[in-house]
Amino acid sequence: MNTHTDLFHIDNDNNEDWKPFRSLRDWCQSCRMLLVMLIAVAAVLGASTNSCWAQTANPAPADHPEITVHGQKFTPASILARNMGTLEDQTAQFPPHKIIGNLYYVGTRTLSSFLIVTAQGNILINTTYERNVPTIKKSVEQLGFKFSDIKVLLGTHAHNDHQEGDALVKQMTGAQVMAMAEDVPALRAMKPGGKEHPIDVTLHDRQTVGLGDTTLTAHLTAGHTHGCTTWTMKAQEGGKMYNVVIACSFRPPAILTPEVIAEFNRTFPLVRSLPCDVPLGDHTAQYRMQEKYSKLQQGVRNPFIDPAGCHYEVEIEEAMFHALLNEQRKASTH
Ligand SMILES: [Zn+2]
Q1: What's the rounded Cα separation, in Å, for the pair 143 and 136?
Q2: Which of 84, 89, 265, 333 is deepest in the core (most CB within 10 A)?
Q3: Distance, CA 224 to ligand 1 centroid (Å)?
């Protein structure tokens, strides 16, 4: 218990970063605008240094090429900004809620965490940043469940904004941590505060993970990372069974190597072929969570049952992949 409390001090440590700004505010009231600008710059830097691309040894996403999908313009940079939101969006609790059946949302405004509740214990998908673990715990408890009932810990991909908190959650719950084989090297390199990344079970494409009456299937949907994992399961509501797809990020990196190109060429058709009624993703914008949550409050029908929205994200990312590939090929012929 003491160990847990100590680890929660990570939040306080982070606050140290802001002290220079606080003192600036104290001695220079007229510099308020400058302060706001500094905070904005810090937020942008924070988002970019912590986010998905930082791990990939790839350049930062550019403001080109620009594509239009679903009547909306996207660039690599705008997709990253959409996924991450502000530093506050990455950290602030989103109201925990039931998605469908035994599946619940316990993440922040922009970083998804999903809880699956069974009679034999619970499954958590994605711990996000380690600093968010207390928030996820609070969400689990607000839904009426025990954090210590998490028996299995899964993830969508080996980037800090999705799986940095695994070691801490393992310490707190003793859950079995399972990871796709192709993501294991990147996960092993993820050591928040020097903690080793726990991996109890190595998974392979289409392997299943069962707990209670729930079975999840791990689909290798590589490209964004080599072991990017899309999880599928069935959930029951109103006497009907629905196919749930918890998608990995499909956002292509700035530099497309032959290996990554081959991965995406396999991944996009595979993702489109998955039976799907309830599309979900590891960033909330990938399935328009906030819009659907607002509809949920109106209570007409379950807005997360959205077969028409199943390919929303893959259409954006596949178009961006081809636009990047064209740009890369043109550049190499010059
Ligand atoms: Zn990522």
Answers
A1: 11
A2: 84
A3: 6
Contact 140, 257 (CB under 8 A): no
CA distance 152 to 301: 31
pLDDT score recorded for residue 176: 98
Task: Identify the CA nearest to 205 among candidates 267, 151, 149.
Answer: 267
* Run of H or E residues at 222: none
Note residues around ion ligand 1 (Cβ under 5 angstroms): 52, 159, 249
Distance from Cα 206 to the centre of ligand 1, integer Å: 21
Least confident of 53-67, 200-214, 233-247, 282-296: 53-67
Interval 69-126: pLDDT, tens: 999 999 999 999 999 999 999 999 999 999 999 999 999 999 999 999 999 999 999 9
Reduced 3-state DSSP string for 232-301: EEEEEECCEEEEEEEECCCCCCCCCCHHHHHHHHHHHHHHHHCCCCEEEECEHHHHCHHHHHHHHHHCCC
Question: Using CA atoms, how far apart are residues 298 and 318, in angstroms rounded to an integer?
Answer: 33
Q: Is the pLDDT of residue 44 over 50?
A: no
